[in-house]
Amino acid sequence: MAELRGRFIEVPARMLPPETLNALLEAFVTRQGYDTTDTGAGMSGWVAELKQQLERHELIIAHDLELEMTEVMTLAQWRAFGRDLADDEEEGDY
């Protein structure tokens, strides 16, 4: 699991330019299949809600140093993702 921790870093939202943060959050909304009519403010309503979730540490932004990809994840997704990768490493898939 030490290799796993070294492969990923958590990126504080405040470190990202606003356009980049918004693009990551919009991709998260799309990937999760959120109904953008739920907030009454469309995509921007979801982005605002997700920014609040980031502030409450309910979401994280993780950067994969190996794949050079950055994703927004819920804590449950992050934990499951870490377990899946650890299993792959044990099986020699990585």
From TrEMBL:
<protein>
    <recommendedName>
        <fullName>YheU family protein</fullName>
    </recommendedName>
</protein>
<dbReference type="InterPro" id="IPR036685">
    <property type="entry name" value="YehU-like_sf"/>
</dbReference>
<dbReference type="Pfam" id="PF06794">
    <property type="entry name" value="UPF0270"/>
</dbReference>
<comment type="similarity">
    <text>Belongs to the UPF0270 family.</text>
</comment>
<dbReference type="InterPro" id="IPR010648">
    <property type="entry name" value="UPF0270"/>
</dbReference>
